[in-house]
Design goal:
5-stranded antiparallel sheet; globular; 5 helices; about 270 residues; alpha+beta
Length: about 270
């Protein structure tokens, strides 16, 4: 009987542990630094470089997991936080991410606000097609007719946490993906790779603003080449024009036949 109770107790502990693992909750975060590194922890507590991610990558953060640690081969310590990416656990420097946020794209040049108040506008602007992190926290504006979102982003080495009007943002995942792809292209000079990335990006269903920027970047990179989609569009237009000409010709033939038939009927009557 004691053995049975022991097995039951062990099973209950294991079952509770499994449930706890399944119910593990994460906070969302966004990498807001180009080429941010992920690290794994060595036995001595130092951090070993593992891989690099591009600006705008979404991450899952383990709550209350921050710690001070030194990078492998370094003495100075930096604050790290434990994250989940691609179903694996890593560590990342806290300063490189915006926590409790989701990735987004600014669709047009826009001025930023110090507070969610139309009177708090600044002379600082965020360039169109900048990847930003949008806070999950609810923003209550001074004037409810204006909707604001709190964003975080980096320009060069400057970090900003400010407010923008909600209507200039796109949370579309494909918009973010295309911008990440374009940013990554800046680090490669291989034309074959560039063209492959461009053609893949052009097949994504992104917003018109992002699509226009993508076309412009392609033409700047390959001024003597024609986009595949433009070739297809030209073929569609030509086919439509040929179809219109065929229909017009058919209508003329039908009208001619009707006139001839009427002439024959008039002759018969005479």
């Amino acid at each position: 009987m004691k053995k049975l109770l022991g097995f039951v107790a062990i099973f209950a502990i294991l079952f509770a542990g499994c449930n706890k693992k399944q119910e593990e909750k994460f906070d969302s975060a966004v990498l807001i630094y180009q080429d941010g590194s992920l690290w794994t922890e060595n036995e001595d507590g130092s951090m070993k470089w593992s891989t690099t991610l591009s600006n705008g990558t979404g991450l899952k953060v383990y709550p209350d997991s921050s710690k001070m640690a030194a990078r492998e081969g370094k003495n100075d310590e930096t604050e790290f936080v434990k994250v989940r990416f691609d179903n694996k656990d890593y560590w990342i420097q806290t300063a490189l991410i915006a926590q409790n946020a989701v990735e987004s794209v600014v669709l047009e040049d826009t001025l930023v606000y110090q507070n969610p108040d139309i009177a708090a506008v600044t002379n600082i602007s965020v360039p169109a097609l900048t990847i930003v992190a949008v806070s999950n926290d609810e923003v209550i504006a001074e004037d409810p007719s204006f909707k604001f979102k709190k964003i975080s982003y980096r320009t060069d080495k400057t970090y900003r946490s400010v407010y923008v009007k909600q209507n200039v943002l796109s949370n579309d995942k494909e918009d973010v993906l295309v911008l990440r792809m374009l940013n990554k292209l800046k680090s490669t000079k291989n034309e074959t790779v560039k063209e492959e990335v461009f053609n893949n990006a052009l097949q994504l269903n992104c917003s018109p603003e992002v699509k226009d920027a993508l076309r412009a970047e392609y033409k700047a990179a390959f001024p003597d080449r024609v986009l595949e989609e433009e070739t297809v569009a030209e073929e569609v237009v030509e086919a439509a024009e040929e179809n219109e000409e065929t229909e017009a010709s058919t209508e003329v033939d039908e009208e001619t036949s009707e006139v001839e038939e009427e002439s024959e009927e008039t002759g018969d009557e005479e």
